[in-house]
């Protein structure tokens, strides 16, 4: 087992690194900034358009999933870029797969929101 902080000090320490990660994503990733602005609009809107706790939860989770996938994609891209600028098939594949994860999360958001809005307003 790796020695280190445990309990509440570990949670506080980990939270600090998470905050640094969010700040780095905001500073260096235009897609994350755009998706975060989208989240600031859509999350409150879900409380207006959703007609049950389940609908609101699904709508909010679909938005948060996009942010999570973008953070993972950005992390993969940073690691790939760190290990050299030369073209390599595996580097390209890793970046493409990360991008596909974001695209699927966005598709999920569109489907969840469309189904709920159609159920509620059509």
TrEMBL record:
Keywords assigned by UniProt, alphabetized: ATP-binding, Cell inner membrane, Cell membrane, Kinase, Lipid biosynthesis, Lipid metabolism, Magnesium, Membrane, Metal-binding, Nucleotide-binding, Phospholipid biosynthesis, Phospholipid metabolism, Transferase, Transmembrane, Transmembrane helix
Protein name as annotated: Diacylglycerol kinase
Organism of origin: Kangiella taiwanensis
Keyword tRNA processing: no
Pfam families for this protein: DAGK_prokar
Transmembrane segments: 36-54, 100-121
InterPro entries xref list: DAGK, DAGK_prok, DAGK_sf
Cofactors required: Mg(2+)
GO molecular function: kinase activity
Family: Belongs to the bacterial diacylglycerol kinase family.
Xref: PANTHER family: DIACYLGLYCEROL KINASE
UniProt membrane topology term: Multi-pass membrane protein
């Amino acid at each position: 087992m790796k020695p280190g902080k445990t309990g509440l000090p570990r949670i506080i320490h980990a939270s600090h690194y998470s905050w640094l990660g969010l700040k780095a994503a905001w500073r260096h990733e235009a897609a994350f900034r755009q998706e975060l602005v989208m989240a600031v609009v859509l999350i409150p809107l879900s409380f207006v358009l959703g007609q049950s706790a389940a609908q609101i939860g699904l709508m909010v989770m679909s938005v948060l999933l996009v942010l999570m996938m973008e953070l993972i994609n950005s992390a993969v891209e940073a690691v790939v870029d760190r290990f050299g600028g030369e073209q390599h098939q595996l580097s390209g594949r890793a970046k493409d797969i990360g991008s596909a994860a974001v695209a699927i999360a966005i598709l999920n958001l569109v489907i969840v929101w469309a189904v709920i809005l159609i159920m509620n307003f059509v």
